[in-house]
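Thread: Modeling a multi-component assembly for a lab meeting

Hi all, long-time lurker, first post. My supervisor asked me to bring a structural picture of a complex we are working on to next week's group meeting, and I have zero experience with this. I have the sequence lines for every component (371 residues in total). Could someone generate the structure of the whole assembly? Inputs are pasted exactly as I received them:
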Amino acid sequence: MAREVKIYTTPTCPYCRMAKKFLDDNGVKYQEFDIAKDKAAREEMKNKCNSLAVPTICFGSEVLVGFNEAELRKKLGL
Amino acid sequence: MTAAVYAARKKINTLLVSGDIGGQGLTTWLVENYMGYQFIEGRELMQKFEEQVKQFPTDVKVEVGKRAERLSRVGGGFEVRTDRGETYQAKAVIVATGKRPRQLNIPGEKELLGRGVTYCAICDGPLFADVKVAVIGGGNSALEAVDDMVKIADHVYLVSLTPLTGDQILIDKAKSANNLTIFLEYEVLEINGKSRVEGIKIRDLKSKQEKELDVGGVFVEIGLIPNSELVKQLVTPNRLGEIMVDCGSETGVPGFFAAGDVTSVPDKQIVVAAGEGAKAALQAHRYLQRLSK
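Re: Modeling a multi-component assembly
Sure thing. I ran the full set together rather than chain by chain. Output:
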């Protein structure tokens, strides 16, 4: 997949793990940012994605907050 | 998952359908009362459960990412319909769908969900480093959220409608924090903010005096409601929305069993739910044996 997918996570978030597993299982390449450690990524997620919850998945102008498999499938065209 | 393991050991052809693997266990930070472990993270315990289910790949088929939405009688058995439109038929069914977080249903809650309002403290806690936050609730989940957040946030306000109802060990732990303020017998009237949470308005139940708290995060931990909607065609849940079962996990509809937090069995604990799952599978096995005679 050509587009750049970013996923913002925390290590203790079960829904983040589910979202990553879904992306892995579907061969979607992504960049992961652990916002518990990475302050700059935390600010980017807050300000660019206007989100205060994980997982936040961003690609292009789309922002998905939380793990909703059906929605993610639709938005990624899977 | 325990029911699936017990069913597999009885060589029952079993299908496990669920939106996720682990349910509420996944969002429990530390489990300190599941026998065999002095303490273990909820997600790790659920991973161990999953591994145990997967020991029986020929007997248990696992379908994850599909939430059962409707259970109905078809012929002599049952049909389960999922949120993705698939249907599955079985001679016997065990419903162990657990509970989901209860909402406050106040202005601002829906609008600011994911923008400071959260129902998953262990997921979103780190986002609120050095911010003032409010935890709403007075039970164990709220006290656990307080215990996490006093280490992360600048200040924590605990707002409860009732006196604290959680375990004394958790109450004592929470009260020892010096960045915690507790408001007991207060209700939350609204959550304010334009694009993010900026504050909440609370009211003293006795004096009716209102107060504004300047917070950037609101952790809603006011209990859970049973995921029992799918069985409404077959049985009427009790006033709490729980599926009523007898001591043999039977619902009154032959072949339909229920286990865990979705049922009327008191004490919603992982160890209790696991035991109830085992009982339900053994009862289902007896039922299937009677059917085949």
